[in-house]
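Table S2 (continued). Query chain:
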Amino acid sequence: MNMEYKKKFTVAEMRTLADWYQRHAAELPDTLQLDAATFYTDLKFTLDGFFKVYGLHGEKPSFSGEIYQLFLIKKRLVELGLPDD
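Corresponding output:
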């Protein structure tokens, strides 16, 4: 599932994404090079933080960039071999 950036993500989209992360929690790497400019040194901590942002501010477009990172991280993990189920 490739998700385009938008200012608001539906509850269903976020539930699907959260379920995917839960299914693959044991397969997540400790670190992740998302792109040339973005390196996550503690991926699980980062994911937890982004999901907390969604829980607190999911309806506010101001935080859509942080929430979108969850979709970009998933896309990169799939590129690195995790299943896109």
